[in-house]
Amino acid sequence: MNEKSYTELMKKSAMRKKKLKESYVLDLYIDMLLSEVLLTKERARLMKEINKALDTGNKSAFLHLSKQYKEISKQFGT
Description:
With 78 residues, the protein is mainly α. Helix content is 87%, strand content 0%. It has helices spanning 6-56, 59-75. Helix 1 packs antiparallel against helix 2 (59-75). 1% of the residues are buried. It holds the Pfam family IDEAL.
């Protein structure tokens, strides 16, 4: 028979829990990174559109895009 001691079982359980925690933290970091990339891309797109609206004198587009920019900035705390 291949019986394991109580100590070995506890070590194995502790290692499994540690790996799960590390995996969770890694997933959290990846999620944060992806959110930051998407935010940066969306903010750049909005700024480009805002500048275009300013250049063409399109006040309604400017106001609409500015509102979107403020909302996305507020949503992500920037």
